[in-house]
Amino acid sequence: MLTVVNPHGDVPVYKQVATDLRNKIQSGELGPSARLQSEKDLATEYNVGRDAVREALAMLRGEGLIE
């Protein structure tokens, strides 16, 4: 399923991706033992570049939400 990210919005794309993933983690949609998709697959899902996905994942790692 393609998740909508607004590349022209006020919020940077990587933060939009991080927010969506954070919401999925906090809601339990992505459980503690769930494996995230590959960077390539996440980039396709969010229709963004892999650099944006890497930044989003780094942000979530820094928050202790993923490892």
List the helices and strands and how they pair.
Elements: H1 13-27, H2 39-46, H3 50-62
Helix pairs in contact: 1-3, 2-3
Molecular structure report:
The structure is a single chain. This protein has 67 residues and is mostly helical. The protein has 3 helices and no strands. It has helices at 13-27, 39-46, 50-62. Helix 1 crosses helix 3 (50-62) and helix 2 (39-46) packs across helix 3 (50-62). The longest helix is centred in the first third of the chain and has 15 residues, at 13-27. The protein starts with 12 loop residues before the first helix and ends in a 5-residue tail after the last helix.
Given as residue ranges, the uncertain stretches (5+ residues, pLDDT < 50) are none
Mean pLDDT: 94
Number of strands: 0
Total helices: the number is 3
Bulk shape: globular
Quick summary of this structure?
This protein has 67 residues and is mainly alpha-helical. Helix content is 54%, strand content 0%. The chain starts with 12 loop residues before the first helix and ends in a 5-residue tail after the last helix.
